[in-house]
């Protein structure tokens, strides 16, 4: 391996380390407490080393959010292959999205800006629409099978996403008067079933 390749690999390894440490700090202390200084202290390097790899904290947050979207995408793709029937696929997507949110709350909060400023001001994340695109495809397939007006697909897609994301947000931000996560999942399941019946 040449000197240039070694330097590129070292830079990539350092970026990966910075992001992993940032995520661990967030898991331990929350998003609001994350700082460049804390990351530098945790990896035992000086602050300028962090700035050699990322422009600022928002740049780190942006990259971490993309990692979250990629993880969600892989989960949804597994469901896409496992459920050829669009009705079953839509249910599976809702469950996968719910499970992803509560298994990876730090990612979910960052990805959708829950309880924190959005990361990377001015940056567009095409990945933001990962879930929308998957459920939209399933809803469009259902509309075609039922010979329904496809002009409603966009509306129904956003309505479905709003229901699932809204309930997750309520539970995650602890604004609900229902403290039982089983009850919340039951609300999700029944709402998804009612929605699917009306497609």
TrEMBL record:
Q: Does the keyword Transcription apply?
A: yes
User: Gene3D superfamilies per the record?
Assistant: Tetracycline Repressor, domain 2 (1.10.357.10)
- Keywords carried by this UniProt record: DNA-binding, Transcription, Transcription regulation
List the SUPFAM superfamilies hit by this protein, alphabetically. Homeodomain-like, Tetracyclin repressor-like, C-terminal domain
Query: What are the protein's GO molecular function terms?
Result: DNA binding
Does the UniProt entry include the keyword DNA-binding? Answer: yes
Residues annotated to bind DNA: 35-54
- Per the database record, which ranges form the HTH tetR-type domain? 12-72
Query: Which PANTHER family does the entry link to?
Result: ACREF/ENVCD OPERON REPRESSOR-RELATED (PTHR43479), HTH TETR-TYPE DOMAIN-CONTAINING PROTEIN (PTHR43479:SF20)
Spell out the protein name for this chain: TetR/AcrR family transcriptional regulator
């Amino acid at each position: 391996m040449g000197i240039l390749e070694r330097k590129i690999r070292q830079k990539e390894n350092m970026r990966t380390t910075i992001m992993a440490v940032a995520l661990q700090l967030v898991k331990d202390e929350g998003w609001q407490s994350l700082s460049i200084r804390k990351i530098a202290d945790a990896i035992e390097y000086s602050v300028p080393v962090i700035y050699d790899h990322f422009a600022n904290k928002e740049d780190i947050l942006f990259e971490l959010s993309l990692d979250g979207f990629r993880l969600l995408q892989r989960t949804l793709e597994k469901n896409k292959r496992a459920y050829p029937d669009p009705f079953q696929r839509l249910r599976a997507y809702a469950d996968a999205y719910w499970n992803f949110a509560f298994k990876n709350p730090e990612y979910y909060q960052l990805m959708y800006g829950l309880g924190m400023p959005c990361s990377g001001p001015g940056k567009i994340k095409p990945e933001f629409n990962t879930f929308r695109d998957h459920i939209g495809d399933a809803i469009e397939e259902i509309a075609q099978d039922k010979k329904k007006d496809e002009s409603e697909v966009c509306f129904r897609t956003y309505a479905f996403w709003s229901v699932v994301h809204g309930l997750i947000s309520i539970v995650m931000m602890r604004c609900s008067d229902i403290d039982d996560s089983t009850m919340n999942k039951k609300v999700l399941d029944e709402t998804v079933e009612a929605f699917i019946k009306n497609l």
